[in-house]
Amino acid sequence: MIQSRFVYRNEKLNEITVKGHANYKQHGEDIVCAAVSAATLVTANAIEHLKLNHLIDLTVEEGYFKLVLRTEDPTVLGLIENLEYTLSDLEKQYPKYIKNQKEG
């Protein structure tokens, strides 16, 4: 199961951690894992493309993604809020394979 954690500080999204594997299908055919991986990487790539990566701490490893805001920025905040929305939508579609949790 993929587990996502959204941490809020001062009522604003500040941190996203995504870990695990969906195990929806075997490796290479798992559309749930592929969707989550695409969503996280698109977010990270957009931040880098916009040259805003100095505003975040980012860790990306096999089965693990963690993004923490260093400084509030409306563009980065919009991108990570979109990631939260996407992961929440995927959880609705695949509740046996994705579990999201909010803190703060």
Structural features, described:
With 104 residues, this protein is of the alpha+beta class. The chain has one domain (2-103): 2-Layer Sandwich (Alpha-Beta Plaits). The protein is 38% helix and 33% strand. The chain has two helices and five strands, in the order E-E-H-E-E-H-E. The protein has helices at 31-49, 74-93, and strands at residues 2-9, 12-19, 56-61, 64-69, 98-103. The chain has a five-stranded mixed beta sheet with strand order 3-4-2-1-5, with helices on one face. A hairpin with a 2-residue loop joins strand 3 (56-61) and strand 4. Helix 1 runs antiparallel to helix 2. The radius of gyration is 13 Å and the shape is globular. The model has no long low-confidence stretch (mean pLDDT 95).
Question: Can you describe this structure in just a few lines?
Answer:
The protein is an alpha+beta fold and 104 residues long. The chain is 38% helix and 33% strand. It is globular, with a radius of gyration of 13 Å.
% residues in beta strands: 25-35%
Strand order of the largest sheet: 3-4-2-1-5
- Tally the structural domains: 1
Give the distance, in angstroms, between the N- and C-terminal Cα atoms: 23 Å
Number of strands: 5
Q: In which range does the helix fraction lie?
A: 25-40%
CATH class type = Alpha Beta
Task: Give me the secondary-structure category.
Answer: alpha+beta
What's the rounded overall pLDDT mean? 95
Mind summarizing the main beta sheet? 5 strands, mixed
Give the CA-based shape: globular
H/I helix tally? 2
Q: What's the CATH H-level superfamily name?
A: Cysteine protease Prp
Q: Based on the coordinates given, report the CATH architecture.
A: 2-Layer Sandwich
CATH topology: Alpha-Beta Plaits
Q: List unreliable stretches of 5+ residues.
A: none
Q: Could you tell me the radius of gyration in angstroms?
A: 13 Å
H/E element order: EEHEEHE
